[in-house]
Write a structure and sequence with these properties.
This protein is of the alpha+beta class and 111 residues long. It has a single domain, classed as Nuclear Transport Factor 2, Chain: A (Roll), CATH 3.10.450. A hairpin with a 2-residue loop joins strand 3 and strand 4. The model has no long low-confidence stretch (mean pLDDT 97).
Length: 111
């Protein structure tokens, strides 16, 4: 449930093209790896999502979760990012959630 709560907030901010809202779901020192060079912290995350096209939406499915400690949950997800002007992009996402914020985010594209 922890992963779903965090990812629902993330999805809402992504769907509304709200870069600051997306960044609010991350720890201050979060490591973030999208499909561009990695960044650290909320400013880097907000800048990444600000560069995404208007109309981009995210649909996710949680594939696996593991509770690593009382306040640490690992999540592995499948995410479809849809766009208004190009085909949907299917990606895999690993997140490490500390408390109720994302501390690590890494996207992969599998062939």
């Amino acid at each position: 449930m922890v992963i779903e709560n965090v990812m629902d907030r993330w999805k809402t901010a992504v769907d509304n093209h709200d870069p600051e809202g997306v960044a609010a779901n991350f720890t201050e020192d979060a490591i973030f790896q999208g499909l561009h060079p990695y960044g650290v912290g909320k400013a880097a995350i907000a800048a990444y999502y600000d560069s995404q096209p208007l109309g981009m939406k995210a649909e996710y499915k949680v594939l696996e979760t593991r509770r690593l400690a009382d306040d640490l949950v690992l999540g592995y997800l499948n995410v479809d990012f849809s766009f208004t002007d190009r085909p949907t992009r299917n990606l895999y996402l690993s997140v490490l959630v500390k408390g109720d914020l994302i501390a690590h985010y890494q996207v992969s594209q599998l062939s």
